[in-house]
Amino acid sequence: MVERYALEPLKSLWTLKTQYERWLEVELAVVEAYEEKNIAPKGTAQKIRESASIDVDDILETEKIVDHDVIAFIKSVTKNMGDEARYFHYGLTSSDIVDTANSLALVRCLDTIINSCEKLGESLYKKAIEYKKLPTIGRTHGVHAEPTSFGLKFLSWYAELTRNIERLKYVKEEIAVGKLSGAVGNYANIDPEIEKIALQKLGLKPTPVATQVISRDYIAHMLSVFAVLAGLIERIAIEIRHLQKTEVLEAMEPFKEGQRGSSAMPHKKNPILCERLTGMARLIRSYAQVGFENMALWHERDISHSSAERYILPDSTMTIYYMIEKTRHIIENIKIFDKNIVKNIDITNGLVYSQRVMLALVDVGMSREEAYTIVQKYALECWETGKSFKEMLKKDENISKLLADKIDEIFKPDYYLRNIEEIYKRFGRQE
């Protein structure tokens, strides 16, 4: 856990104390199931609940001796119990507790992450509506292409985010599984009905087949969805970073009062949040890779996955949550320079209208090849000389004759927004 990037409520979900509390939660659910099946005396779970205490320091000290965290947990938690301790961890193995408790943690993390995504989605859609009718220059390969709607940038991000929310919801449902089936997953020392009852109390369902552990494809899938979501956040961050360049300056991430951009240059306003998100996206992708590598374990299990998951489960969930929250902060407080956006459409002296000119010539009877060749000739001259593309065309007698008074109309950016409403209607939302 990096304190700098750890936000509540996820930060508290991954403390050692909270981890042990989840382990106890699982153990108690099993004891309650034993009571229901008349294996443990009525009231056993209540006695355990009253006598169990989680002392993190004591557990860690015990672990130094036994060199096994679950055994240390059991010894510490049950030391003040009476006969009821016989039913604590009865028929279970360590991974029953650890894996099931991890599923609880991940489901709770995903609840928070999904909620955060939904708030980000509302912020993106609001900006998409606000800037729907603002013309901007579209860029391909980093080069000016044709005008488009500035709001479509936000709408595109919103659309992708909605798909990610659906993926996260599926992952949450998928990963809500537990395993209480004993040493190698064959229920030799515990009845499958106990597992079913206990997991139902925890809001989980049994994984269909387990070894000593729950198969790691669940976690690999979750981490891959995080990586896809991080890819969207990186796409947003990179776009804003490009738009914040001095020579572009169409948008800028928030710069709060008192903030400083450089220890040497007082004028600097750097896109540090967006750059931070770009770096974090690399981390999330690396966690996904570890998740894939954790899938292949020896026979019924080894513990090569265990050490890795102690890093990647808390860090991946907290990092993606941090990324979502910071992205929302950026979107809600982004500074948009409308005048620069409009001005930048014309910095190529009208070149961005070349396709409209070509199609207009085709419409009046010229072949597409001939139209393309003529328009490209003037376009390349405009590139090299910086002359007005429109004025060049007007001086060409043949083009001027064919297009007559249409030329001025061709060089207007609003034309490129004529079908924007149809795109927005696809989302079925009231504006």
UniProtKB/TrEMBL annotation:
> Which keywords, in A-to-Z order, does the entry hold?
Lyase, Purine biosynthesis
Q: Pfam families from the entry?
A: ADSL_C (PF10397), Lyase_1 (PF00206)
Question: Domain Adenylosuccinate lyase C-terminal spans what residues?
Answer: 349-428
A molecular function (GO) held by this record is: N6-(1,2-dicarboxyethyl)AMP AMP-lyase (fumarate-forming) activity
What Gene3D superfamilies does this protein's entry cite? Fumarase/aspartase (C-terminal domain), Fumarase/aspartase (Central domain), Fumarase/aspartase (N-terminal domain)
Pathway(s) it belongs to: Purine metabolism; IMP biosynthesis via de novo pathway; 5-amino-1-(5-phospho-D-ribosyl)imidazole-4-carboxamide from 5-amino-1-(5-phospho-D-ribosyl)imidazole-4-carboxylate: step 2/2; Purine metabolism; AMP biosynthesis via de novo pathway; AMP from IMP: step 2/2
Major enzyme class: lyase
GO CC, sorted alphabetically, is: cytosol
Give the superkingdom in one word: Bacteria
Q: What is its EC number?
A: 4.3.2.2
* GO BP terms: 'de novo' AMP biosynthetic process; 'de novo' IMP biosynthetic process
Q: Which InterPro entries match?
A: AdenyloSucc_lyase_C (IPR019468), Fumarase/histidase_N (IPR024083), Fumarate_lyase_CS (IPR020557), Fumarate_lyase_fam (IPR000362), Fumarate_lyase_N (IPR022761), L-Aspartase-like (IPR008948), Pur_lyase (IPR004769)
Indicate yes or no for the key word Lyase. Answer: yes
This enzyme catalyses: N(6)-(1,2-dicarboxyethyl)-AMP = fumarate + AMP; (2S)-2-[5-amino-1-(5-phospho-beta-D-ribosyl)imidazole-4-carboxamido]succinate = 5-amino-1-(5-phospho-beta-D-ribosyl)imidazole-4-carboxamide + fumarate
Family assignment?
A: Belongs to the lyase 1 family. Adenylosuccinate lyase subfamily.
PANTHER family per the UniProt record, alphabetical: ADENYLOSUCCINATE LYASE
Please identify the protein, giving its name as recorded: Adenylosuccinate lyase
